[in-house]
Specification:
This protein is mainly α and 136 residues long. 56% of the residues lie in helices and 10% in strands. The N and C termini lie far apart (55 Å).
C-alpha cells in the first residue's frame, strides 16, 4: 500500500512539473513563431528567458510558468496567499535580480484563455526585482 502511495505521489509531482514547464515551451513557440506579434527583444534574449522560465516552473508554489513578450515571466501560483506569493517572489528575485515576475490572477486567466493571450500580457504592472532589491 505504501509503495502504491509513493508511486502516485511521485507521478503527481512529475505531472505538475511537466505542466509548469509546458507553459514555458508553449509560450516560447508562440513568441518565436511570430504568432504573438513583433518581439520586443533580440531572439537570443528569449533563449535566456526560456531558461529563467524553466527554472521558475520548478518552484514549489508555481503551477504554470509562461514567458511574456516584453521579457517578464508570468506564473499561476498553486497557493494564492500573501505568504506563499512573497516567498515565491523572494526566491525568484534572488535567482533573477534583473527580471520581473508577474502573478496571474483568476481574472487574468478568465480574460486570457489561451497561452497566446497570456504571452501578450504586459509585465509592467508588476514591480521588477531590480526595483524590489534597490538596484535601479
Amino acid at each position: 500500500m505504501r509503495k502504491l502511495l509513493l508511486i502516485c505521489v511521485a507521478f503527481g509531482l512529475g505531472c505538475s512539473a511537466a505542466q509548469a514547464a509546458d507553459g514555458c515551451t508553449k509560450s516560447r513557440e508562440y513568441l518565436l513563431s511570430g504568432r504573438a506579434g513583433d518581439l520586443t527583444m533580440p531572439v537570443t534574449s528569449y533563449t535566456n528567458l526560456f531558461k529563467t522560465c524553466s527554472a521558475t516552473a520548478t518552484m514549489s508554489n508555481v503551477k504554470v510558468a509562461y514567458m511574456l513578450r516584453d521579457g517578464g515571466i508570468a506564473v499561476t501560483p498553486k497557493q494564492d496567499t500573501v505568504a506563499a506569493t512573497a516567498a515565491t517572489l523572494s526566491r525568484f528575485c534572488d535567482s533573477n535580480p534583473r527580471s520581473t515576475l508577474r502573478f496571474l490572477s483568476k481574472r487574468d486567466l478568465k480574460l486570457n484563455r489561451s497561452v497566446l493571450d497570456i504571452v501578450k500580457i504586459s509585465s509592467t504592472s508588476a514591480t521588477s526585482c531590480k526595483k524590489l532589491k534597490g538596484l535601479s
